[in-house]
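Q: How would the structure tokens look for this protein?
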Amino acid sequence: MELEEMKNTWQAMSKRLEKQEILTSQLIENMTQKKYKSKFSKLLTYEIIGTVVCYTSAIFLMINFEKLDTWYLMAFGLITLISLLVLPVITLRKLHTMKRLNIANSSHTDVLIEFHKAKKALLVNQKITLYISILLAVIILPVTSKIFNDKNLFEAEYINNLWFYLPILLAFLFVLSRWVFKGYKSATNSAEKVLNEIDT
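A: Here is the predicted structure in token form.
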């Protein structure tokens, strides 16, 4: 009888330990998921602010579009408008894909494969956005000059202004873009460390 009681007690303890292990494992996965998502929260906040700025600028450009009175200024205005509306959405989607990676319901290998695919897509998107931003700086300068000052920078008396402001704008944009890209790289590397900690 004592042997039977000991066996039952042992089985009950074994079941409790199994449940505790499962709960501990779930708790660790949930904490890891939170820690992982937090790595992208700051970037997401900056991107949302950037999106609001882009959309506000796009609305302002639409309101003042009739001031662009030549075919090339209209073309530049249209390229600027499309860029302001499309680029932020693409970046937010890539960032959202990174953030929603489900650590708890997938194997560690699957999670790492998905993460590396999403990371590559996000960083490639950032590089493309960087190059488009530099091109956009060249395009947006004549557009803003026409809207704010009613000056066509391509006319002879204003062409010197274009050559003066353009290098300053490009240098500023280059430094800003590199800083933003480093921020993205740092966040993705930090998130990767969190994922690698799961298996250790």
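The chain has a mean pLDDT of 80.

The first helix runs from residue 2 to 63.

Upvote if useful.
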